[in-house]
Amino acid sequence: MEAPIGVFDSGYGGLTILRYLRKLLPEYDFLYLGDNARAPYGKHSLTTIYEYAREAVSHLFACGCPMVIIACNTVSAHALRLLQQIDLPRSSDPTRRILGVIRPTVERLGELTRNGHVGILATPATVRSNTYLLEVNRLHPEIQLTQQAPKMWVSLIEGGEYQANEGVNYFVRRNIEELLRKDPRIDTIQLACTHYPVLLPRIREFVRDDIVIAEQGMIVAESTQNYLQRHPEMERRLSKNGISHFLTTEEDGEFAEMAGLFLHARLAEDMIDQVQLR
What we know:
Blueprint: E1 5-9, H1 14-24, E2 30-34, H2 46-62, E3 67-70, H3 73-78, H4 80-90, E4 97-99, H5 102-112, E5 117-121, H6 124-129, H7 131-139, E6 144-148, H8 153-158, H9 166-182, E7 188-191, H10 200-205, E8 212-214, H11 217-230, H12 232-235, E9 244-248, H13 252-263, E10 272-274
Parallel strand pairs: 1-2, 1-3, 2-9, 3-4, 5-6, 5-7, 7-8, 9-10
């Protein structure tokens, strides 16, 4: 039986990934799950992040999704490997797949940088995990990676403060300047939090024109497309009606209002359902 591709994030940011998935793979169906009621995950312990992620992925599997994309850097950094290596083999259907966003992002960095100096802008939880450093050292040991963890960006975005104003400009400029001070030779900045593309117009104001600013959305979408081309046995299990549906653990009215900012599309009420994870 064919079923949609599951996409999971701890909140709204994963919708920036889904936006590009729907653009590049418009014929496929998607089921998005945002655990907004318990976001942000970065404030929780590693054990709690793993438990929450396991509940979310299990819910999408129970909905029939044969493949789930974890569109969250924090979960990809702290829980993906456990889900892939421990939970999936013990599940009722080990042929299902769980994919993350960090590996495809790092794979692309070698094509983006011209001089081997790359900056990463990520949440404190993702930076603390050192997952990007480990993956870059494994795949691109020639790249010098510098990380910066803006502490306020996610809060600003989810609080509706993303347009140009004195406060937003201050926090964006400060973190960009701190990153470039650590390594003035950076020629590529990777946005390694799925919320950060909302601030892209502000980020560009404080970055030199010769620096590439890379979003994860198209990178992950192209990686997913490539994966399906290489795995026809999975591709055949996916439904293709061009339909997207959305699940949230918060009030569905609140979700609809914020989702448009990340998805660049208005969601009808019948496209959203509130769920409880356990």
